[in-house]
Each structure stands twice: as C-alpha cells, then as structure tokens.
Amino acid sequence: MKIVIIGSGNVAYHLARAFTENKIPVSQIFGRNKSNLQLISEEVHLPYSHTQLEDADLYLICVSDGSISDVSKLIKKDNCLVAHTSGSLPKEILTGNYRKASFYPLQTFSKSVDLNYAEIPFFIEAENKKDVELLQDLAESISEKVMVSTYEKRKYIHLTAVFACNFVNHLFARAKEISDSQEIPFDYFLPLIKETTDKIKILEPKFAQTGPAVRNDERVLKAHEDLIKDEEQLKIYKVMNESIKEMYEL
Amino acid sequence: MKIVIIGSGNVAYHLARAFTENKIPVSQIFGRNKSNLQLISEEVHLPYSHTQLEDADLYLICVSDGSISDVSKLIKKDNCLVAHTSGSLPKEILTGNYRKASFYPLQTFSKSVDLNYAEIPFFIEAENKKDVELLQDLAESISEKVMVSTYEKRKYIHLTAVFACNFVNHLFARAKEISDSQEIPFDYFLPLIKETTDKIKILEPKFAQTGPAVRNDERVLKAHEDLIKDEEQLKIYKVMNESIKEMYEL
Questions:
Q1: Which residues, 6 or more positions from A248, have their beta carbon under 8 angstroms from its beta carbon?
Q2: Is there a single domain that holds both residue B128 and residue B143?
Q3: Nearest-neighbour CA in chain B from A79: distance (Å)
Q4: Does A127 lie in the same domain as A27?
Q5: Which of A3, A129, B36, B148 would staple B8 via disulfide (CB 3.0–4.6 Å)?
Q6: Are both B80 and B125 inside the same structural domain?
Q7: Residue A212 belongs to what domain range?
Q8: What interface predicted TM-score (ipTM) does this complex get?
Q9: pLDDT in tens, chain A (250 residues)
C-alpha cells in the first residue's frame, strides 16, 4: 500500500515520524511550504514535493481545518482512500470521487516535543468495513489505543479535549500571570500541577477536588476576588467556582 | 527542639511522614479525631493524644482554616513558636502569647497518594529572623524549594494554585462528564493531559496554547456551543474562550 502524507505542519511531521519509526513506508510528503517539507524530509528520510502529488492508495490530509476541503480537491484519482486528521469535521468535507475517511489522533502536537506515539489514541471512521479495517491496522501499527468512532462521537472527543487540554493550558497561562506579578517562580507550581494530573490516574477527578469552592469557604473566595485585578481572571475565577459549587450541590 | 503536630487530616499526615522520613523527631501528633490519629500514629510510629497536648518548642497547626484560631488557643505556653500551614491566613490568626509563624507547603494532599516531599515548595514567615531561620532549616530538611514569603505574597501563591490546580481538576471533572456521556473512556485523554502538562516545563504556557479559540475558529466554537447541553459547561466554555481571545488579542 502506497501512503502519501499531505501537509507540512506538526501533525504531518509527527505522523511521518510515527510511521517511519514503526517501519510503515510513506511514499511522499506533499505540501505548500517547501522549507518545512525539506526539514521534515531530512529528519524523517522521506521524499517530498510541493508541486507534484504522487500516486497512492491512501492519502492522509494533515492540514488545518479550513484548508482540508481545498487540499482534498488536489486528489483527482477515484480508486483510493483519503482520510483527514481533524477532530471536528465530517469525512464528507473531503471533496472528490474517492473513498472518504477520518483518521484522528487525539494529541496536541508541537514540533519541539517528543511523543510516545504508542500512547496516542486514534479514532477511525470510513465508508466501508474494509477501509475501517485498513485504517485500524495502520493506526494499530503506531498506537495501542485505536477506536472506531462516528463523526458525532468525534465531536464530543474534541470537545472533551478542549476542556481537558486547551482550557487547562489557558489556566496555566493565567496562573503564571498571577505568579509573575508577585515575582514567584512559576516553576514552584509544577510539582502541584504534576500531583493534580497524577491524582486523576487513580481517583476520579470529581472525587479529587480540593480548594476553597468545594469547601464552600466564602471568606477565601471573597478575599481572592478582591485580590484579582484582571477582568478576565476574575470572570474565570467566578465561573469556575460557581461550576464547582453546582457540581457538589453547595 | 521538640515538635508537636496538631491535626489529623491530610496535611498533618504528610508532614508527620515527611519529618520522620527525614529523621526529624516529632514528639506528638495531637488532634480531635482519635481514629485518624491512631492510623497516622501506627503508620508513622509517633505518639499521639486527643486529650493531652504535650509541651514543645514548635507547634505546627495542620487543621482547616476555620479551626486554626480555636485550635491555636489550646497552646497556653508563651515561650514557644506556633506556625499554621494555611495558604490563605495571616500568622496573626493564631491566638496566644507565643511567637507566630506560617509554614505553608504548596501541595495538594490526599492520604492515598504518595508524594515526593523534596519537591514540595515551602513558604515561610515568622516574627523574627531567628524563627525564620529555624523554620527555613526545618523546611529545607524536607524540601529543596524553600522561600521566605509575606502574607501578601502567600495570598497570591494560593490564588495561583487555585487556578493551576483546583480549577484544572474541575476542568478534568467537567471533561469527564462529556466523555462519559458518549461512553468514551476518560483514560483515552490521559496522554493528552500528560502532554499538556509536560509541555509547560519547556514552553511558557502562553506559547503552548492550542485549540479553536486561539485559532479564532468561529465555526468550531459555534459547533461546540451547540453540542454542549449542560449550563455550567457552557458558561465555562464561553468564559475560557473569551479569555483566550483576550490574551492573544483576537
């Protein structure tokens, strides 16, 4: 089976690496950004092109959501399988006469961070059983956690990830604003953060909740509100505490 | 120096353990809850009492914020040092003629979770230099990260911790509600969560932000809002995205 990866961003880079590390041959990495492609090609030892899309059995489109439809039109072939890697779009966004699929790795990708690919969950969807199996096999060659998933389900996966990852990172960013303002090294909070995320491996997050809101400690809540000078920080502070109280019926 | 720990909760337990593991003798653990004290005493091999507070040079009060003042009145001695372990109260909450101090470990404590005490930051405050040094030495016998801190600063430390830990845990709890509703194992999100928290060790959280809001992806934001059925989840979703947009001036 000939595989072509389309895209030159972080998802393309990490998928290319994951495949080659697991001895899955990739025929080409194709994209617009020649210098990015060159870098990936050198590191992962793959042929690349930014002009000539190679013939393949499977195209994996690893570009931003807004570009998937346009990029998918570059594939003029009918007898092939095309999958995008977006968590938030249906496979029908792909525009062509080929068989359509979704191949969604649930991970946040940065070029500078090494990943243990075996741990990354993959969610698969395709038009027919054979294609599902093909993509499942492919994902299982990288990862130990592969699940078939409808588009509907994938939307909730993405939403869960936004809460558990994007918003969590933003809380770190807001927390650092506060500690920076007092010249307290943000490093000092890393053990606490590690403990917070370690704890949910053995305890349901609902049962691991600590802090003033779950203790219904109005004195501390009020004192904190007085301490916060930034409007966005204050909005977050209030909404999160209200939500904690609602969850524990306080 | 004779040390007595007052309290029988998670902070008392972990401080008792941290001291004995580091060969700092503790004379007594004192509290109201006899069965808790018994459990700690058996595990950590310390004498305990729920009736007779022993004479000591240093009392460490490890009880909930609301009880510190009352508990501190049990110490009738003048010539001793008394420290509480709260992040959110001044040392003046202590009521007695002894020297007052704060000995604040920045960590979330659960009895069931083992901790690397060497990594836990301690923030110290006392009335005079000698007591500051005494508490600093004591904290440094446990931890590598000890900092002198005023009450004012401690309030911001606590506030930062609420954002980076309590609220983060609550996001995990809300995220799990969403994944549970679709029968997606919450386990699948643990690598993503680990990656999110690993990333901030090498990258400032502000520069590690991903997700629809920082991409200003109105389509996904709107689709997610339509997907969310729970009122509290929706409030969090909106406030966090607004705050992300504000931070990146989108």
A1: A209, A214
A2: yes
A3: 31
A4: yes
A5: B36
A6: yes
A7: 155-247
A8: 0.83
A9: 999 999 999 999 999 999 999 999 999 999 999 999 999 999 999 999 999 999 999 999 999 999 999 999 999 999 999 999 998 899 999 999 999 999 999 987 777 777 889 999 999 999 999 999 999 999 999 999 999 999 999 999 999 999 999 999 999 999 999 999 999 999 999 999 998 999 999 999 999 999 999 999 999 999 999 999 999 999 999 999 999 999 999 8
